[in-house]
């Protein structure tokens, strides 16, 4: 299965809806463990080895990387998660993705409301526009938020290139999840 932002996002979304068993009110620790475990399993599905810094004890800049054992030693995917809902922490973790070189970079962030998504994406674009050293890399930025009025978890995902250009929203979906 080829790796690209759409196939990775769809696989994550399917896991979240069908397999995760997570509810919005669960602890951030439960969410973080679940998300990292999902991406560890997805790495195997896509034919990669996942390196999780907290499990392997290896120090990478980000939470998870996907790589293959090859002489070129490039990273196919780098992922950072920030579930605290703080804009400053989200942008700090996004900067980690900018600093590491990988073909696909995934940022998965949690917000208290989807209303702040556009503002944060605009800040991310400013960060990307300041980069001098780039290569062919794509950013998949996923936001999770909970809509109290509908009782649904909202999932919004964007595809950004190295210049911060949004090619399209990969998804703007909402799914009925148990809040607790």
In short:
The chain has 180 residues and is an alpha/beta fold.
Instruction: Write the CATH architecture name.
Output: 3-Layer(aba) Sandwich
Mean pLDDT: 83
**CATH topological fold name:** Restriction Endonuclease
Order of helices and strands: HHEHEEHEHEEE
Q: Alpha-carbon distance between the termini?
A: 35 Å
Q: What is the CATH top level name? A: Alpha Beta
User: What kind of assembly state do the chains in view correspond to?
Assistant: single chain
Main sheet record: 7 strands, mixed
What is the helix fraction of residues, given as a range?
25-40%
Point out poorly predicted stretches: none
Radius of gyration: 15 Å
Give the number of DSSP strands: 7
* Amount of beta strand: 25-35%
- Structural class of the secondary structure composition? alpha/beta
Instruction: Name the shape in a single word.
Output: globular
Which strand order spans the largest sheet, edge to edge or round the barrel? Answer: 1-2-3-4-5-6-7
Return the domain count.
Answer: 1
Treating each run of at least 4 consecutive H or I residues as one helix, how many helices?
A: 5
What would you say this structure looks like, in words?
The chain is α/β, with parallel strands linked by helices and 180 residues long. It has one domain (5-176): Restriction Endonuclease (3-Layer(aba) Sandwich). Helices cover 35% and strands 30% of the residues. It contains five helices and seven strands; from the N terminus they run ααβαββαβαβββ. It has a seven-stranded mixed beta sheet, sandwiched between helices. β6 and β7 form a beta hairpin. α1 (5-19) packs across α2 (28-45). The longest helix is centred in the N-terminal third of the chain and has 18 residues, at 28-45. The chain is globular and about 50 Å long. The termini are far apart. The mean pLDDT is 83.
